[in-house]
Protein backbone atom coordinates (compact mmCIF):
# COMPACT_ATOMS: atom_id res chain seq x y z
CA UNK A 1 0.00 0.00 0.00
CA UNK A 2 2.95 2.34 0.53
CA UNK A 3 3.50 2.35 -3.25
CA UNK A 4 -0.13 3.05 -4.06
CA UNK A 5 -0.72 6.51 -5.57
CA UNK A 6 -4.49 6.66 -6.01
CA UNK A 7 -6.14 8.33 -2.98
CA UNK A 8 -9.31 6.23 -3.17
CA UNK A 9 -7.37 2.96 -3.15
CA UNK A 10 -5.23 4.19 -0.25
CA UNK A 11 -8.33 5.18 1.70
CA UNK A 12 -10.06 1.87 1.03
CA UNK A 13 -6.90 -0.05 1.88
CA UNK A 14 -6.54 1.67 5.24
CA UNK A 15 -10.24 1.13 5.95
CA UNK A 16 -9.88 -2.57 5.16
CA UNK A 17 -6.89 -2.84 7.50
CA UNK A 18 -8.77 -1.14 10.32
CA UNK A 19 -11.90 -3.23 9.80
CA UNK A 20 -9.95 -6.47 9.73
CA UNK A 21 -7.15 -5.84 12.23
CA UNK A 22 -8.06 -2.68 14.14
CA UNK A 23 -9.05 -4.48 17.32
CA UNK A 24 -5.83 -6.51 17.32
CA UNK A 25 -3.25 -3.85 16.43
CA UNK A 26 -1.46 -2.37 19.43
CA UNK A 27 -1.09 1.23 18.25
CA UNK A 28 -0.98 4.49 20.14
CA UNK A 29 -4.07 6.68 20.13
CA UNK A 30 -2.19 9.18 17.94
CA UNK A 31 -1.34 6.60 15.26
CA UNK A 32 -4.83 5.11 15.33
CA UNK A 33 -6.39 8.56 15.06
CA UNK A 34 -4.28 9.36 11.99
CA UNK A 35 -5.41 6.14 10.31
CA UNK A 36 -9.07 6.87 11.01
CA UNK A 37 -8.69 10.41 9.70
CA UNK A 38 -7.12 9.01 6.53
CA UNK A 39 -10.22 6.90 5.84
CA UNK A 40 -12.35 10.06 5.84
CA UNK A 41 -10.06 12.32 3.84
CA UNK A 42 -10.32 12.81 0.10
CA UNK A 43 -6.52 12.92 -0.01
CA UNK A 44 -5.24 10.55 2.72
CA UNK A 45 -2.05 11.64 4.43
CA UNK A 46 0.74 9.12 3.59
CA UNK A 47 2.29 9.87 6.98
CA UNK A 48 -0.66 8.13 8.64
CA UNK A 49 0.63 4.78 7.42
CA UNK A 50 4.25 5.70 8.14
CA UNK A 51 3.44 6.46 11.77
CA UNK A 52 1.59 3.16 12.22
CA UNK A 53 4.31 1.23 10.39
CA UNK A 54 7.05 2.65 12.64
CA UNK A 55 5.12 1.77 15.79
CA UNK A 56 4.42 -1.77 14.64
CA UNK A 57 8.02 -2.29 13.55
CA UNK A 58 9.25 -1.07 16.94
CA UNK A 59 6.82 -3.39 18.71
CA UNK A 60 8.01 -6.35 16.64
CA UNK A 61 11.65 -5.46 17.26
CA UNK A 62 11.38 -4.80 21.00
CA UNK A 63 8.73 -7.32 22.02
CA UNK A 64 7.70 -10.04 19.58
CA UNK A 65 11.18 -10.68 18.17
CA UNK A 66 12.86 -11.17 21.57
CA UNK A 67 9.97 -13.39 22.63
CA UNK A 68 10.32 -15.43 19.44
CA UNK A 69 14.04 -15.89 20.11
CA UNK A 70 13.13 -17.35 23.49
CA UNK A 71 10.34 -19.51 22.09
CA UNK A 72 10.32 -23.29 22.01
CA UNK A 73 9.90 -23.19 18.23
CA UNK A 74 13.09 -21.19 17.69
CA UNK A 75 15.07 -23.20 20.23
CA UNK A 76 14.05 -26.46 18.60
CA UNK A 77 15.22 -25.05 15.27
CA UNK A 78 18.59 -24.06 16.75
CA UNK A 79 18.91 -27.46 18.39
CA UNK A 80 18.61 -29.16 15.00
CA UNK A 81 21.55 -27.09 13.76
CA UNK A 82 23.73 -27.70 16.81
CA UNK A 83 26.67 -30.07 16.16
CA UNK A 84 27.21 -32.72 18.81
CA UNK A 85 30.88 -31.73 18.97
CA UNK A 86 29.88 -28.24 20.08
CA UNK A 87 27.56 -29.52 22.80
CA UNK A 88 30.34 -31.81 24.00
CA UNK A 89 32.47 -28.73 24.65
CA UNK A 90 30.13 -27.87 27.49
CA UNK A 91 31.63 -30.75 29.48
CA UNK A 92 34.83 -28.78 29.89
CA UNK A 93 33.74 -25.19 29.32
CA UNK A 94 31.17 -23.50 31.52
CA UNK A 95 31.52 -20.34 29.42
CA UNK A 96 30.70 -22.28 26.23
CA UNK A 97 27.54 -23.57 27.88
CA UNK A 98 26.39 -20.12 28.99
CA UNK A 99 27.34 -18.63 25.64
CA UNK A 100 25.04 -20.94 23.69
CA UNK A 101 21.29 -20.34 23.63
CA UNK A 102 20.42 -24.03 23.31
CA UNK A 103 22.83 -24.88 26.09
CA UNK A 104 21.33 -22.27 28.39
CA UNK A 105 17.83 -23.51 27.60
CA UNK A 106 18.63 -27.06 28.68
CA UNK A 107 20.64 -25.85 31.66
CA UNK A 108 17.67 -23.67 32.66
CA UNK A 109 15.31 -26.63 32.38
CA UNK A 110 17.62 -28.65 34.59
CA UNK A 111 17.80 -25.83 37.14
CA UNK A 112 14.02 -25.47 37.07
CA UNK A 113 13.63 -29.14 37.93
CA UNK A 114 15.90 -28.73 40.94
CA UNK A 115 14.25 -25.41 41.93
CA UNK A 116 17.35 -23.32 41.29
CA UNK A 117 16.76 -21.43 38.04
CA UNK A 118 16.69 -17.91 39.53
CA UNK A 119 20.47 -17.52 39.24
CA UNK A 120 20.47 -18.20 35.51
CA UNK A 121 17.40 -16.01 34.99
CA UNK A 122 19.25 -13.19 36.73
CA UNK A 123 22.34 -13.79 34.58
CA UNK A 124 20.28 -13.66 31.38
CA UNK A 125 18.47 -10.50 32.48
CA UNK A 126 21.79 -8.76 33.10
CA UNK A 127 23.08 -9.79 29.66
CA UNK A 128 19.95 -8.22 28.14
CA UNK A 129 20.41 -5.16 30.37
CA UNK A 130 23.96 -4.64 29.10
CA UNK A 131 22.71 -4.42 25.53
CA UNK A 132 20.75 -1.24 26.27
CA UNK A 133 22.15 2.20 25.59
CA UNK A 134 24.60 2.94 28.39
CA UNK A 135 23.35 5.29 31.12
CA UNK A 136 19.96 5.65 29.41
CA UNK A 137 16.54 5.92 31.03
CA UNK A 138 15.77 2.46 29.64
CA UNK A 139 18.84 1.09 31.42
CA UNK A 140 17.84 2.73 34.70
CA UNK A 141 14.30 1.36 34.40
CA UNK A 142 15.52 -2.14 33.63
CA UNK A 143 17.96 -2.03 36.56
CA UNK A 144 15.00 -1.31 38.83
CA UNK A 145 13.07 -4.20 37.29
CA UNK A 146 15.99 -6.57 37.85
CA UNK A 147 16.31 -5.34 41.41
CA UNK A 148 12.63 -5.98 42.09
CA UNK A 149 12.63 -9.41 40.45
CA UNK A 150 15.90 -10.79 41.76
CA UNK A 151 17.49 -8.66 44.48
CA UNK A 152 14.56 -7.53 46.60
CA UNK A 153 14.37 -9.42 49.87
CA UNK A 154 11.55 -11.93 49.67
CA UNK A 155 11.20 -11.72 45.87
CA UNK A 156 9.89 -14.89 44.25
CA UNK A 157 13.10 -15.20 42.19
CA UNK A 158 15.42 -13.79 44.84
CA UNK A 159 19.12 -14.29 44.15
CA UNK A 160 21.10 -14.55 47.35
CA UNK A 161 24.06 -12.19 47.37
CA UNK A 162 26.41 -11.18 50.18
CA UNK A 163 24.77 -8.40 52.17
CA UNK A 164 27.43 -5.81 51.35
CA UNK A 165 27.26 -6.57 47.63
CA UNK A 166 23.49 -6.28 47.58
CA UNK A 167 23.69 -2.94 49.38
CA UNK A 168 26.22 -1.55 46.89
CA UNK A 169 24.03 -2.46 43.93
CA UNK A 170 20.87 -1.12 45.54
CA UNK A 171 22.62 2.14 46.47
CA UNK A 172 23.69 2.77 42.88
CA UNK A 173 20.18 2.11 41.59
CA UNK A 174 18.61 4.26 44.29
CA UNK A 175 20.97 7.13 43.45
CA UNK A 176 20.40 6.61 39.70
CA UNK A 177 24.11 5.96 39.30
CA UNK A 178 23.50 3.18 36.80
CA UNK A 179 25.67 2.10 33.88
CA UNK A 180 26.39 -1.21 32.17
CA UNK A 181 28.70 -2.30 35.00
CA UNK A 182 26.25 -1.95 37.89
CA UNK A 183 25.58 -5.70 38.11
CA UNK A 184 29.09 -6.91 37.21
CA UNK A 185 30.10 -7.95 40.71
CA UNK A 186 26.75 -9.64 41.32
CA UNK A 187 26.97 -11.55 38.03
CA UNK A 188 30.45 -12.83 38.88
CA UNK A 189 29.14 -14.06 42.21
CA UNK A 190 26.19 -15.81 40.55
CA UNK A 191 28.40 -17.36 37.87
CA UNK A 192 30.59 -18.85 40.58
CA UNK A 193 27.55 -20.31 42.34
CA UNK A 194 26.33 -21.87 39.09
CA UNK A 195 29.75 -23.23 38.24
CA UNK A 196 30.50 -24.74 41.65
CA UNK A 197 27.62 -27.20 41.83
CA UNK A 198 24.69 -26.93 39.37
CA UNK A 199 26.95 -26.96 36.31
CA UNK A 200 28.71 -30.15 37.41
CA UNK A 201 25.39 -31.82 38.16
CA UNK A 202 23.98 -30.76 34.79
CA UNK A 203 26.92 -32.21 32.85
CA UNK A 204 26.30 -35.53 34.58
CA UNK A 205 22.52 -35.34 34.25
CA UNK A 206 20.11 -37.38 32.17
CA UNK A 207 18.91 -34.16 30.50
CA UNK A 208 22.34 -33.40 29.09
CA UNK A 209 23.03 -36.96 28.00
CA UNK A 210 19.63 -37.18 26.33
CA UNK A 211 20.46 -34.04 24.37
CA UNK A 212 23.81 -35.44 23.23
CA UNK A 213 22.07 -38.61 22.07
CA UNK A 214 19.84 -36.54 19.75
CA UNK A 215 22.69 -34.61 18.14
CA UNK A 216 24.93 -35.64 15.28
From TrEMBL:
UniProt domain RGS: residue ranges: 33-78, 93-212
Gene3D superfamilies reported for this sequence: Regulator of G-protein Signalling 4, domain 2 (1.10.167.10)
Origin superkingdom: Eukaryota
SMART domains assigned: RGS (SM00315)
Coiled-coil annotated residue ranges, if any: none
Family matches, as PROSITE patterns: RGS (PS50132)
Alphabetized InterPro entries for the sequence: RGS, RGS_sf, RGS_subdomain_2
Name under which the protein is recorded: RGS domain-containing protein
Amino acid sequence: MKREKQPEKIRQGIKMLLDKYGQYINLSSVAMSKLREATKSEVPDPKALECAHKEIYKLLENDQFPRFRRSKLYLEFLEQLLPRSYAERWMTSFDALLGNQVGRHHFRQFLFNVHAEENLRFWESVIEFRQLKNKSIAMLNMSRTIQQQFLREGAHNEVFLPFGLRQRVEKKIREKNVDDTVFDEAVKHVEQILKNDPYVRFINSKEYNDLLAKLH
